[in-house]
Amino acid sequence: MFIRKNKNWFILGIVLKIILSVSFIGIAQNQKRTTEEIKIKTSAICEMCKDRIEKGLAWEKGVKDVSLNLETKIVTVKYRTTKTTPEKIRLAISKLGYDADGIPADTKAYEKLPSCCKKGNAAH
Ligand SMILES: [Cu+2]
């Protein structure tokens, strides 16, 4: 009787371990799914713009990776859906002085940009 009781505890232990590891796998997969990628059209012109946007966004909460293609002016941002939203990222780009999709550049930030980085200039 006593031995049997011990065996039951042993089985219960195994069952608990299985339940725990299954839920850990679930959490791990969930974290994977919370990372999304968006492409945002900006008004970047030169390497300085690229640097400014990439470094500026790198400090944004929830942003994991930023890479701007100067030929297309499209910035690819990897972000955590639990920490930020595409809207917040576009706003952050606007606050750096650049257009982001439909959101125009923040006027004050835009005025602070070096003249070579202002819209309408050709790449240099
Ligand atoms: Cu520039």
Question: What labels describe this entry?
Answer:
binds copper (II) ion; rod-shaped; 124 residues; single chain; 4 helices; alpha+beta; Alpha-Beta Plaits; three-stranded antiparallel β-sheet; 2 domains
Structure explained in plain terms:
The chain is an alpha+beta fold and 124 residues long. The chain has 2 domains: 1-33; 35-117, 2-Layer Sandwich (Alpha-Beta Plaits). It has 4 helices and 3 strands. The protein has a 3-stranded antiparallel sheet. A hairpin with a 4-residue loop joins strand 2 (63-69) and strand 3. The longest helix has 32 residues, at 2-33. The radius of gyration is 24 Å and the shape is rod-shaped. It binds copper (II) ion (CU).
> Number of domains in the coordinates?
2
Radius of gyration: 24 Å
CATH class of the largest domain: Alpha Beta
Largest sheet: 3 strands, antiparallel
In short:
This protein has helices at about 1-35, 45-60, 85-95, 105-110; strands at about 35-40, 65-70, 75-80. With about 120 residues, it is α+β, with helices and mostly antiparallel strands.
Layout of helices and strands:
Layout: H1 2-33, E1 35-41, H2 47-58, E2 63-69, E3 74-80, H3 86-95, H4 107-112
Antiparallel strand pairs: 1-3, 2-3
The structure holds copper (II) ion.
